[in-house]
């Protein structure tokens, strides 16, 4: 019974893979926005270029949040790594518990919200 319950952790891979695919989608969208910014600046539309760069940066940052979440779930809860392999991982990929994951995600989400607010700032009517 215990072995069955422990094997249920592999269902968390669905969340990890979903977050990883979401990160790839955000990186794609961010790259598209940056390309649009280049095209807009070539045409002299600086407001559109600035908005596209800020929007693209926002999407890249959200992609990073999703990627950190995907890695943390996979390497923190699903895969059993040897101590040597765990030591070789970057510090942001080493998760020692759910509270540490929540703390990392909260700090990254706060940075994302700050960037998101600044990208929405030009849209606020004065």
In short:
The protein is mainly α and 126 residues long.
Explained architecture:
This protein is mainly alpha-helical and 126 residues long. It has one domain. Helices cover 79% and strands 0% of the residues. α2 runs antiparallel to α3 and α3 runs antiparallel to α5. It is elongated, with a radius of gyration of 19 Å. The mean pLDDT is 83.
Give the rounded overall mean pLDDT. Answer: 83
Radius of gyration: 19 Å
Look at the helices and sheets and give the structural class.
mainly alpha
SSE pattern: HHHHH
Percent of residues in helices comes to over 70%
Poorly predicted parts: none
Query: Largest sheet, if any?
Result: none
Strand-residue proportion: under 5%
The total of helices stands at 5
The N- to C-terminal Cα distance equals: 62 Å
The total number of structural domains is 1
Total E-strand runs: 0
What general outline do the C-alpha atoms trace?
elongated
InterPro entries: UPF0114 (IPR005134)
Keywords: Membrane, Transmembrane, Transmembrane helix
Protein name: YqhA family protein
Organism: marine sediment metagenome
